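Q: Hi! Curious about what Branched-chain amino acid ABC transporter permease looks like structurally. Here's the sequence.
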Amino acid sequence: MADYLVSLTIWAALYSLFALGLNLQWGFAGLINFGHVAFMTLGAYTTALLTLQGVPIILAVFCGMIIAACLGLLIGMSTLRLREDYLAIVTIGMSELIRLFVLNEEEITKGAFGVQRYPLPFNINPNPISKITFIIVFTIVAIYALWQLWKSLKKEWLSSQEIKGKSYKPRSQKSILIWGIIAALVIIVLYLNGIISLANYGYKDGLMVFILVILALVYGALEFLSHSPWGRILKAIREDDTVPLALGKNVFWYKLQAFMLGGAIAGLAGSFFAWQLTTIYPTNFEPILTFTAWIIVILGGSGSNAGTLLGAIIYWTYDSLTRFALPLLPFFKSDSQLGSFRIMVIGLILMILMRSRPQGILGKKEELTLGR
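A: Let's find out. The predicted structure is below.
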């Protein structure tokens, strides 16, 4: 169970990183990307293939991010001047094109056999001092996560009280409180389990600390950018791009920047995806990964980085609980029925959420980009 919770922590952090890239594109810039998995594919394969050739891991990761950003440049240059639906069509087509390429190209990507036995980070046997260092870093990240969760929940709580003067919305506040308590409890449980696992160090424990540190750095950088003039221009473009255009802003260039940066973040997530799986195959990069990221962003609240992290925590908590609890029920006769039911429940949760809080848990209704 301890190893499973460590793996769950990695998956939640990995999808948080992946969804943060999508949130930058959609939540801040209003760019519809249905092929987000393409950037992850390039990041994963570039990192794995370069490290097999002896390239240092950090350099290989940067190369994967750059190639993913170049894909964003290629797509953006050809579609961002057109309507949003063209971008959606091109991105999902490009993701399938890349997946089919790595599936059928055998000299470089090894085709359906996948890429195996590539170097992994922190695959070491640490001494006691190194273990203590891992535990200290892990503790700092956990405290930072709880602090950011508290700040975001407090901000959303106060804003829910100030809609049209001082008219209160108890139902909205109650849902914020419930989701916040769930997320805080999950973070605490995963932290305590992580401390125990780090005392008996394994490869996945080092990867867990590594991805959490990177996630904290990326989250902090995106928070800084979203509150900077650059981020405010992106929000203005999302709402109505004719306004910043009239003010002399290069709307196309800002959209391209957001699309490339979001792709680079997804490419970074692809590196961790490769390290988590330890062997990658073309079938690992199905379109369902993109739509899982969309679920996380919508659930947490588009345009909110903290909401994206909260959405990932809630999604993977649901995933792990139903994975163990539902098979105990006598209603399901096969794994396919169980899988279909879990997807149906996710859809039901999203439908209820869209009725009660269409902006997501931590999203702002006044910044809602859907259904205006």
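A: A fun detail: The domain at 2-367 is CATH 1.10.3470 (ABC transporter involved in vitamin B12 uptake, BtuC).
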